[in-house]
Predict the structure.
Amino acid sequence: MYLWKGSRLTIRVTRLGDVYLGMTGMVGVMGVYTNNNLLHVVFGLMIGLLLVSGWVSRASLQAIEPVRIEDGSLFARLRGGLRLRLSDKAPSRIRGLEVRLKIPNCRVEPSFFPGGKGDGSPTVVLQVRPEKRGPAQPKYIELRTSYPFGFLEKTKLFHLDTTLLIAPHPGGHENYDGDRGDFSEPDTKSGYSSPVGARPFVAGDSINRIHWKRTAQRGEPWVRVMEGDHPKGLLLELDLTEWKPGRNFERELERLSGAILQARLQKIDTVLTILGRHGRIEAAGHLAAWRALVRLEAEAI
């Protein structure tokens, strides 16, 4: 049952509150018919408890509001953490707030903010699972409380003017077959170190380093990675004019996203080059490369 429903504040009687109000009414009626002073006292105490619950829950929503959603990486079809920064002007106050975030085409799990820790600029982490890549516009943030007794639930709405960027799902990086890859610069002489792995051949690699067994298995040149080689970076290239809209294009974006994630885990710099009808775009860095993939559209006719 709603006691108040506005654009920013909603007050609702919970199921426990309905039961409590019913019991309070019964005690009041019995006190009137029996003229029992003890029932009158109990009725007054129950009404007082309800008023105290409403006052405390109202105070828990005061002097606090969301400030911004901090930058982070969200991927389609993967659950990730989103940090919400709050402004708390009464940091010592117990809050007991449930924090909810509404984002279209995203599943957001509620979080809990207890308050009372003395931090005037706290953060709350919400678990978000986007359904698809692209920009997402959060509709509103809810701060909800039924503290301390759960009789009344108050909800305060806040609207944020921000846009979240959902990167493609980082899948298929192990099958990435582009003609660009990670390259290395050896700091050891041939014969003084042992091979520790293999990688695809790129321009500038020595023919003496070709890994013939891996080349025969993969059907393309691979070279040995030696001890002492230190990676310099990952070069990726995407020509939009070669792709048509559809599932294959989305899979290519997922392969690129996975390659960027792998490079980040290996602490390798990344440069993504995008070719299209409007020219050439280069995105340097992991976050810049992911953001560049968000709004891309295939341009082949």
